[in-house]
Write a structure and sequence with these properties.
About 50% of the residues lie in helices and about 10% in strands. The chain has about 400 residues and is of the alpha/beta class. It has two domains: about 40-150, no CATH class; about 155-405, no CATH class. It has a five-stranded mixed β-sheet. A hairpin with a 5-residue loop joins β2 and β3. α8 crosses α9 and α13 (about 290-315) packs across α16 (about 380-395). The radius of gyration is 29 Å and the shape is elongated.
Amino acid sequence: MELLRSVQGERVLRELRELRELRELRKRRTHRRRIWVHSITRSRNQLGEYHRLIQELRLDDCRFQRYLRLTVAQFDDLLARIDDRISRQDTNYRRSVPAAERLSICLRYFATGDSYRTIANSFRVGVSTVSIIVPAVATAIWECLVGEFMAVPTAEDWRSIAAVFEERWNFPLCCGALDGKHVTLKAPGNTGSQFFNYKGTYSLVLLAVVDAQRCFRVIDVGGYGRSSDGGTLANSAFVQALQSGTLDLPTDLLLPGADQRGPQPHVFVADEAFPLRKNLMRPYPGRILPREKRIFNYRLSRARLVVENAFGILSSQWRMYRRAMEVKPEVAEMCVKATCVLHNFLRRSEEACAVRGNVPVVEVEPLPDLGRVAANNPGREAVRVREVFTAHFSAEGALSWQDTIV
């Protein structure tokens, strides 16, 4: 009996020993030895994209601009503005990524929309490093440039915008064209269908007001993709400012040559996805319309085209808008704001003015939540204002070619 017990005990010990060896073998196979700095990352200063390719591109301003969307002078100017906010301190263990390289990584992400891993491999840094650099630099760009390049329009600014709209696009008392743009995202986690839009993709919404020179004047970022343009507008800071009277629109004025029609409010033009309001004009619905309504739709669409052009310029310059952004919604929102203010920064610089013109960008400060606006049923005052514009465009405000177009 004792002999049997000793044999069984040895067998149990042997099985335990074999099990322990198997666990150690599996552990060695699944958990590779961790290293402080990978050999590929260690050669960043010699073979990294910033230290090799970008330094060579600085000798050719055109190639540098096509690569990072900024000229060398614009890059250096932007770096000087945000250097203090994006610089990191060296430690006894490793050197930090220089501010110029951090800015290059962020701009390259904006310009291409590539994945963090692709950018990390080309710049020879870690993927986690890129995931920290992009939102940090985007935040610094927004906060450092917003004060100088984004002044909220005053009543005099709105008058200037309306004057240019009347001169270039023949739409008087117009303060801007309104539209929304869906910024495609990879499906965010734990959000259900909030970001799922009618196109079958996931997105957040950029709502913008553009002036006659294709310049962004008001932006509102972060609307859920599932909301319609009208729903996004109803919950935006812009419409709350418009309703509460804090947008500082000019007082009502007479239409050119139409003193008998009385003073009319300044308006914004939008497409049929938006509701008709006293200060927001949309086209008449339907296909079979009388001549006066077709002329109004033509004049409104002609003025509203500038916002479509502005979105086209933005997405053409920053190719991240042409891909699904594989980042969190809050990071995507900050990247959108950063590209908008960079868009403004480039337009205001002297070198970009000769090619593209100025594009100032303004965001309305968030206001207290006033709830959703009323239903899309237009009020009597809104209908009356549109009828006055309709009659004006067919009478004293008629254009020589509009009958041929409609």
